[in-house]
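Possible race condition, two jobs.
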Amino acid sequence: MTAPVGRVKNGRGDNARQDNARSMTTAIDLRERHDCWVVMSDLFVDNEVDYAYIAASLRERCPNLSHAALEAAFFDEVAPVLGSNLLTPIPPVWLAFADEDVIREISIWLDQQQASAFSRFAARCGRAIRRRRCIFRSIWQELDRELTALRAP
């Protein structure tokens, strides 16, 4: 008996496709994702944020990332790592994060989230996601407003 198109006999077709898609990330895709993180890091400094500039920078440096991908990067990659800078009484970073530090710290965090089944579960835990979305929603809404304005004719 043959498996349906796009499926493997063991029933793991969807997971296998997702793994293949992840492993096929090109250097350009990765560079664009890193650029996204670096640009978004400016949202988490203890200083006045220029949302219009950040939105324009995202459109320029990350043109292949969809609006949904930018939102996912914000809430699921950047905010969990850099968000604590805004939650402390005296933030350690008030002017700008170093690009290399942003890329390294987010990469390490993402690797840790994939390290074990428990880490993957905890990273996707509904409470943690809702809490993050609640805390940083106003920042995303401001950025979203500017991104939407850039798309308007």
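Job #2 (started ~2 s after job #1):
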Amino acid sequence: STQCLRISMRSKRIYSKCGDGHVDKNEDCDCGHQQICDKFTNKDKCCDSKCMFTKGQYFCADGDCCKNCEYSVNICRPSRGECDKEEICSGFTNKCPLYDFVSPNYKICRNEEGFCYNGNCMNSDYMCKYAYKDSRVFFSSACISLISDILDPETNNSMDEATKFFF
């Protein structure tokens, strides 16, 4: 697989140059070392070895939202469940939007067995058991405010513990 060659580095860059695989301010594109670029990452031949688009009307050379050297409108991330909608490329950038489309928090999901929270369907009964620290407690309207406090990162850092109750 060539995916490992496309992983971007997260470390701080000391200097930039054409052929390093990172698009800098003065570059249209940068698919990496010329041999790697020609063989693996530049299949549509959008980018040349001088880090310029091969044709003036090209807009991109790679990315989930780049097809045939142009920005595309396609599904770039599938839905992760009932509370999360698929992400669709805008047609104006080569990057997929990041988790923009989620259902409103506390919307009922999974045939009324859970509720949406930050794009995940949470099991209400388990959340109430956790909130009250009592295995005999079940979901009720009185439990909603306590759950809300637990999930609020400004009042409590229990989100890591609470996420084990996702469906």
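The CA atoms of residues 121 and 167 lie 6 Å apart.
Logs attached separately.
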